[in-house]
Design a protein that fits this description.
globular; Phosphoesterase
Length: 180
C-alpha cells in the first residue's frame, strides 16, 4: 500500500488544501498525520491562511483515510471536533517484516528512541526539518512540515511505496529519496 506522511499543518487551511490535493494526486491508500494539526503553538508564527475551523472541515471529510498521532500542540478539545482519533502518542504500522513507528517527535525521536528492533523505522515530525537517514540499527524519517518548514526547507510531505521513501514539495519536486 502506498502511504502518505504529513506533519505540522498547524491550522493552515492553505497548506491543508495543498496536502489533500497531493494526497489525491498521489493516489495513496492512507494519509498518516504526524501531529500538530490545528494550532500553531507559542513558538511559531501564524502559518499562511491560519484557519483551524477550515482545516477541521477538510480533514473530517477524509476521516476514513487518516491515521493520526498526537503532537505537542494537540489537546483533548481537538478530539471533540475531529472525527478521527488524534490522541495516540504513536502508531505502530507493520511494513513488510519491519515495524514503522510513527509519532510526533516531541517524546520519541533520535535522542529518545522508542522500543525498536534492528531494522525498524522511526518516522516523526515536530522539528519541521525533513530527514531520511539509515542509522546503525534503524531508519530515521521525517517528512518535514506542511506549513512552517525550517532550515530553508520548502513545505513538504512524504510518500512510502515499495520500500522507497520520497520527500516531495507541493510543486511535485523530489527533495530527498531513501530506499529502505
Amino acid at each position: 500500500m502506498k502511504l502518505m506522511f504529513a506533519s505540522d499543518i498547524h491550522g493552515s487551511a492553505y497548506y491543508c488544501r495543498k496536502m489533500l490535493e497531493a494526497y489525491q494526486a498521489e493516489e495513496a491508500g492512507r494519509l498518516i498525520l504526524l501531529g500538530d494539526i490545528l494550532y500553531h503553538g507559542p513558538r511559531n508564527d501564524l502559518p499562511k491562511e491560519y484557519a483551524p475551523k477550515e482545516v477541521i472541515a477538510m480533514l473530517n471529510l477524509m476521516k476514513n483515510d487518516i491515521c493520526a498521532v498526537r503532537g505537542n500542540c494537540e489537546a483533548e478539545v481537538d478530539q471533540m471536533v475531529l472525527d478521527f482519533p488524534v490522541m495516540a502518542d504513536y502508531a505502530l504500522i507493520l511494513y513488510g517484516e519491519r515495524n514503522l513507528y510513527a509519532t510526533h517527535g516531541h517524546i520519541y525521536n533520535e535522542n529518545n528512541l522508542p522500543p525498536l528492533k534492528n531494522g525498524d523505522i522511526l518516522i516523526h515530525g515536530h522539528t519541521h526539518v525533513l530527514k531520511a537517514e539509515k542509522r546503525e540499527d534503524y531508519t530515521l524519517l521525517n517528512p518535514g512540515s506542511v506549513s512552517i518548514p525550517k532550515e530553508g526547507n520548502p513545505p513538504s510531505y512524504a510518500i512510502l511505496e515499495d520500500g522507497l521513501f520520497t520527500i516531495k514539495g507541493f510543486d511535485g519536486t523530489i527533495i530527498k529519496e531513501l530506499q529502505l
